[in-house]
Design brief:
Blueprint (H helix, E strand, L loop, with lengths): L2 E4 L9 H7 L4 E4 L14 H13 L4 E5 L11 H21 L3 E4 L9 H16 L7 E5 L12 H11 L6 E5 H6 L7 H11 L5 E6 L1 E2 L10 E2 L8 H14 L2 E4 L6 H10 L4
Parallel strand pairs: 1-2, 1-10, 2-3, 3-4, 4-5, 5-6, 6-7, 7-10
Antiparallel strand pairs: 8-9
Helix pairs in contact: 3-4, 4-5
Length: about 270
């Protein structure tokens, strides 16, 4: 398994592999467009060739793409809902061109909808995203911290959405350690939490891990990342999470601030057994 982090594509997407390597990352995550909105940069043949060359030069094989922040599959606003479908599908197509393994997405907010209706609406929209899709990249659902009426804070809800969509390219999740901790999954009680996740969705569904410690208490429902060992999840829990990732061959991506992400990467690498 590889350990890496999120990196910027400033100046061109082909700069990402070198940025990742400079931080000691063995894999990386990127946005292929501004996460706040706007037109996506065109993926020209020259750009794709440059990107591939940089991946080879830096000896990195695995990378993933994160959809923009404004995705909301259960929005009451048709423009936002169908815009989310369009962008998510476009990211899958772009990921397939670039050679990314996965595209991960948040699901959005239920707004005025009940949890049941939000689950149904989200499933319906994701089905539209994947309709006729034949690319290589897989779509992953990332769990949320659960503030307000954010969808996907429980693995049981995500499992139901995946079951409803029933598409071979949506068969997994990206677990964010901080989001799950904030939603009440206490990684400090590792075996209990693992059993809970397994019973709700199945450990085989975990395809990627966002490794983030938490500034806020368990079940706080607040999205506040901390550097590894500087939060309330703690290093002992992360040693066990790394062992799980190594056993299951699951890549880990840090989303901590770049001031100390190099230290975080080194720390997680030190938890691996040879």
């Amino acid at each position: 398994m590889n350990i890496g982090c999120h990196v910027s594509i400033a100046g061109g997407i082909f700069n990402a592999p070198q940025r990742a390597a400079d931080l000691g990352a063995e894999c990386f995550q990127i946005f292929t467009r501004s996460p706040q909105g706007g037109k996506a940069p065109e993926l020209t043949r020259e750009l794709l060739e440059n990107f591939s060359a940089e991946m080879q030069k830096n000896k990195i094989t695995n990378f993933v793409i994160h959809t923009p922040y404004y995705i909301n599959f259960a929005s009451a606003n048709n423009r936002i809902r169908y815009g989310s479908i369009s962008v998510a599908r476009d990211e899958l197509e772009r990921a397939s061109l670039l050679g990314a393994q996965f595209v991960m997405t948040h699901l959005g907010s239920a707004g005025e909808l009940s949890e049941e209706d939000a689950t149904k609406k989200t499933s319906e929209m994701l089905t539209k995203v994947l309709d006729g899709y034949t690319g290589s990249a897989e779509l992953l659902i990332e769990n949320s911290a659960g503030s307000g009426k954010i969808i996907g804070s429980t693995f049981s809800q995500i499992a139901e959405i995946i079951k409803n969509v029933n598409h071979p390219k949506l068969n997994g999740i990206c677990i964010d350690t901080q989001h799950s901790f904030a939603s009440g999954y206490d990684w400090r009680d590792f075996e209990k939490t693992l059993q809970q996740i397994d019973s709700e969705i199945g450990l085989s569904k975990i395809k990627l891990i966002h490794a983030n410690d938490s500034l806020t208490e368990c079940a706080s429902h607040k999205d506040r990342h901390a550097h590894i060992g500087q939060g309330l999840i703690g290093t002992e829990a992360f040693k066990k999470i790394v062992a799980l990732a190594q056993e299951k061959n699951i890549d880990m991506i840090l989303e901590t601030e770049h001031d100390e992400v190099v230290i975080d990467i080194k720390l997680l690498k030190s938890f691996r057994t040879k």
